[in-house]
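pasting input
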Amino acid sequence: MSKKRITIAATGLNNTDNPGPGIPFIRGVLDSDFFNAKIIGLAYENLEPGIYMHNLVKKSYHIPYPTAGSDLLIKRLEYINSIENIDVLIPNFDAELYTFMKAADKLKRMGIKTFLPTLEQYEERHKSNLSEFGKKYRIKVPESKTVFSEKGLDEVEKLIKYPFYVKGKFYEAELCYNKEQAITHLRKISAKWGFPIIIQQYVTGTEVNVVALGDGKGNTIGAVPMRKLYITDKGKAWAGITLSDDNLLKMTKKLIRQTRWRGGMELEIIKTKNNEYYLVEINPRLPAWVYLSVGAGQNLPEALVKLALGVEVKPYKKYKIGKIFIRYSYDLITDIDEFEKLSLYAEL
Amino acid sequence: MKINKKIAFSETGFVYDTSTGDSYSLNPIGLEIIEYLRKDKSFDDIKKIMLEKYDVSKTVLEKSLNDFISSLKTFNILIDE
């Protein structure tokens, strides 16, 4: 069977110690037996390593930061599309998803397909709305409160006991054992990501994660649970292993069924000693460790692209337990003229 | 007491908990005890077999066996029926 030729644009090429999901997503798509994909990288920074990985990414373009708004983004994508004729676009950052969701209809008119959560799904799973989300779907979540200023911490302290997490709107979380630590981290995180800041009760247990894909009709196309074996000082998984945990899979499927989740997702869950499962976060995109799912037998990046193209996807029924991923760092050598080209022309 | 179904053992003594990702390694004596437990031998049966097989006093064997069984329970390798 000849493979279907398509052009896929993807963001998240920052394959650093705080990695975006772009490169593992691309690896999954390039492993596909169904697609013969040409990958176009969309980057925000000159030093995103994926830009220079020419064996994976054929050409890269700078795109404007999400804060510049949807109009500028569309204008830039119109230009890129006039050259590359993009079939599918997969954004991989939390912070840019909103802009892409807003632009989805315009992208569709340009012939670019996406497969993103709806605005409602995106908003209701937000860290700041997690308590309501838990109540609505009857899922255990840690007590959490939202603060909009440093003063708000005084009120929250009365309701949530230390230790608790101070979490940024999109990224970063710091465990705090006293007020001094809470204020320090609140200032640091709010300076970077703005308010609101989320204060979340610390739950003792083991962190487990699930990568999953919903078809938007309530069906789970695939789901693979993982436990981090090695965590970096940024809290990112540097190694992990697939688990056999029926409760985790049941919880994931229930959540996708109830929310009719559309697209990739990552669930962050704490499993307590009493075998209770607390949902601490839902990330509305595939995670940076998604290539583990490919290694375990579920090519979720390929399935996501199929869903975007309207190709029928049969749900995965199983995966290999005990598959391990270990990240590594690698010195990619490039020339100054590549950097120069990217700096001057915003494409490489 | 029974061996947790989520635990995978290899002939080399490598033990892997498929539900948590934890792994352990057993020495040959530990692996031998696991084999007896998998064959549903009781604590007394195991004690009797090992007393006959090895040059060990009853007191030392009982203490070591108790310690080992207790570790297996702590790590959820052995669970209550």
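fyi The beta strands of chain B are 2-3, 7-9, 14-17, 23-25, 78-79.
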